[in-house]
Structure formats: structure tokens, C-alpha cells
């Protein structure tokens, strides 16, 4: 039953679209990840922290707030990129497994039919030999 549902022609047309969307989302996540790395490097620089600390404590707090936000963005974008790739790999493996199970079932029925035919021919051969 599931085979009929997943072999619906609409899915194959949508698969092309979703593959393009997947690549677009991956590129977006990579850009966000690289931007977060750039921001973390910018605000975690010791030189900027010392300069801000000497000038004003509120400026130092402001830089620390920006550092926190950039680190948060780094963790979120990195983790979502990782999970997105894991999800994609899981879906790929499940699809391959489903195809292999279908081919295994077809081969199993083919082997059973061949075995039955061989048994029938052997029985007929023994009958003819008698």
C-alpha cells in the first residue's frame, strides 16, 4: 500500500523542486554560519574589549551583548546545519532501504517461482523416467 502512495507521479515532479529547495536552504545555512563566525571573531577580539573597557562600562557591556548574540547565532546556525545534513542523510538512507526491500521482495518471489518450477520439472522428469 505504501508503495502505491510513494510511487504516485506527483512525488517525482515535486522531488526536483524539493532538491533545489534543499540546496538553497543548505547554502543559506552555510552563509549564516560563516556570518556568525565573522561576528564572533569581530567581537571576541581582545583589542576591542580592552578599548571599550577603558572608554565606558556601558560600551563594554554593549560589546559583550553583541558577542553573546553572535555566539548564539553561531551555535544555532551550526546546529541547524548539522541537523539538516543528518536529516537529509537519513532520508536518503531510508529511500535506499525501501528500494532494496522492494527489489528483495521481487527477487524472493522470483526465486520461489523458479523453485516451484524446478520441483515440477524434476517430478515430471522422474515420472517420465519411470
Structural summary, described in words:
It is a single chain. The protein has 130 residues and is mainly α. The chain has helices spanning 2-6, 9-43, 46-55, 57-129. The longest helix has 73 residues, at 57-129.
Fold topology:
Elements: H1 2-6, H2 9-43, H3 46-55, H4 57-129
Helix pairs in contact: 2-4, 3-4
Quick gist of this model?
The protein has 130 residues and is mainly alpha-helical. 95% of the residues lie in helices and 0% in strands.
Annotation keywords:
130 residues; mainly alpha; 4 helices; 95% helix; rod-shaped; membrane
Structural class: mainly alpha
How much β-strand is present in the residues? Answer: under 5%
Helix tally? Answer: 4
Please write the string of helix (H) and strand (E) elements: HHHH
Largest sheet: none
Low-confidence stretches: none
Number of strands: 0
Q: How much is the radius of gyration in Å? A: 31 Å
Shape: rod-shaped
Mean of all residue-level pLDDT scores: 84
Q: CA-to-CA gap between the ends? A: 48 Å
Helix content: over 70%
Pfam families: Bap31
Transmembrane segments: 74-91
Subcellular location: Endoplasmic reticulum membrane; Membrane
Organism: Tichodroma muraria
Amino acid at each position: 500500500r505504501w508503495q502505491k502512495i510513494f510511487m504516485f507521479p506527483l512525488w517525482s515532479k515535486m522531488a526536483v523542486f524539493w532538491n533545489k529547495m534543499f540546496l538553497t536552504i543548505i547554502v543559506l545555512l552555510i552563509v549564516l554560519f560563516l556570518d556568525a563566525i565573522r561576528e564572533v571573531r569581530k567581537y571576541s577580539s581582545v583589542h576591542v574589549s580592552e578599548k571599550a573597557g577603558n572608554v565606558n562600562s556601558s560600551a563594554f557591556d554593549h560589546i559583550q551583548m553583541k558577542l553573546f548574540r553572535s555566539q548564539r547565532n553561531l551555535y544555532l546556525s551550526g546546529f541547524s546545519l548539522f541537523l539538516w545534513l543528518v536529516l537529509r542523510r537519513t532520508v536518503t538512507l531510508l529511500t535506499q532501504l525501501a528500494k532494496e526491500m522492494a527489489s528483495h521482495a521481487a527477487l524472493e518471489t522470483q526465486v520461489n517461482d523458479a523453485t516451484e518450477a524446478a520441483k515440477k520439472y524434476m517430478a515430471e522428469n522422474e515420472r517420465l523416467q519411470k
